[in-house]
Fold these 3 entries.
Entry 1:
Amino acid sequence: MKKIALILTIFAITAIVLFPVNEARAQKNVQDSANTYLNDINNKIMALQNQLGEGRIILKDKRIFKNTKVHKIHSYWIGYIKDGSLHDFMIEKIERIEIGNDAQKVIVFNDKNEPIIY
């Protein structure tokens, strides 16, 4: 009986110790997949900009920033280059990003701030 109690105690302690590690691994895997997705999108945007040229950022308040290049899209903001300087905007303020003359490609963001390229 004492052996069973000892085994159960060891099992319980092991589960308590390992549970946070497994939870942390799961969160890291989710974060890694989100980073991979954003890296793929950023690479695609860089290729489009190299092919089509600069674009413009249209905000929800209808301001327009012309002659811009997206530097990097993060989870809640974007970095962009205008006149050789790096700037940023919160994604929630952006209506769309147009790449190339005559908006050859358009980037919009869904409710989860994920970029969608049209």
Entry 2:
Amino acid sequence: MPPTPSQLARAIEPVIRQCTRGEVWGAPLFATRDVIYEVESVSGLFAGLKLCLRPASGGDRRVLKIAQPGGVTVETGRLQIVHARYISWGRVKFKPARGEAKPALVLS
């Protein structure tokens, strides 16, 4: 049986308070590759995950939602989610291209 969103959230807690850059299906998540965010919190959300991030330089908190995540791995300084139905960042929703082989999300 696959892990529940709450179990996944607990598994990725080591990324809390880490500063990170992000990629969604190989493309930069943030406006530029130079922007660094700090992960403030992680929680299970229905059939997905919710990460709250704040720019390391200060500013407003943003929410990153991952719908139906799978293939989650956490290594020192790196979170990878192999597949997801979609990822939303603010008001932008990212979906994988047909046959996409790159990981859905990488924070490192």
Entry 3:
Amino acid sequence: MNKVATLQYRWQIDCNGKPRHWRDRFGNLLRAIAQSIDGRASLALFMGSDPPLPTASAREIVVKGVEHMERLLKESARAQCTEILLMEAAPELFDDNEKA
């Protein structure tokens, strides 16, 4: 008789989501206070899966996610800079309503 293997998993990720508990609200308040003091943004991440991931894997996921975010930020800043330079060098290429 043939056996059929099934694969079942679930995952969830939430970043600065809606607070569900008083601890979430308090954490959001502390993050807001910290941001007003130092001007840096904070992320509150929730990552869950079934089956659970080892802590080292979850940590690596966060590190890789931040590295990807850094690449996206760099590309976006470069594109914005290029657009500004093109607008200054050749304004005729842009419509009046597209100018920043």
